[in-house]
Amino acid sequence: MDDLTKISIRGRMAYLLCVFENILVFFKCEKKDWNWILDKLWQYTSIEYLDDWMYEIAEYMPESVMEDNTDDIEYITESELKRLKDLYKNNPAEVNKMLRIIYEAGTIDLYTRLQNGSQNTLVKLQEGIDIAIKTGVKLPDISEFEKYRFIEGNGWGAPFDGKKYSLYL
Q1: Bridge-partner residues for 149, per DSSP?
Q2: What pTM did the predictor assign?
């Protein structure tokens, strides 16, 4: 965990998304089913206004998609909603849990002043790592992400194209 404290939140998110993709590979999840969702998730690393990501991705969360009342959905079309429902109902529990962890890691400190290395995001990151380890999924090499330093961008880090780390895009 010590190595992770020096990595920006955007870098931590990239690492967590790599962990997630390794879990998808482990469960043999099809690229065609996931690439459009992963494209949205990976935008975290490059988007300027993270709250825009937060509002959109909230609608992609399994618990939001599986609700009966979808009147307030703003970002997802009806066909995308149906596609997500079909996908999520067949997901292993670890996949749906990881989606929630990713969302929480990216938003938990969004409207706070980052202190003490953003321990909240580190806790979420560790939750994702724990799922991978428990499932028997190999973790990505952390050294790839050390260049995204916590001292940049007030802890958030400078935007970068994280999609280059994706196994699916």
Answers
A1: 7
A2: 0.94
